[in-house]
Amino acid sequence: MTDFQLHDETTAPEDSRELLAQSKKQNGMIPGLHAVMAEAPGLLEGYRVLHELFLNSSFDKDEITVVWQTINVEHSCHYCVPAHTGISKAMKVDDAISDALRDRTPLPTARLEALRTFTLSMVRERGNVDEVAVADFLAAGYTKRQILEVVLGLSQKVMSNYTNHLAQTPVDRAFRKYDWQDSAVTV
Question: Which of 61, 84, 87, 151 is deepest in the core (most CB within 10 A)?
Answer without folding.
Answer: 84
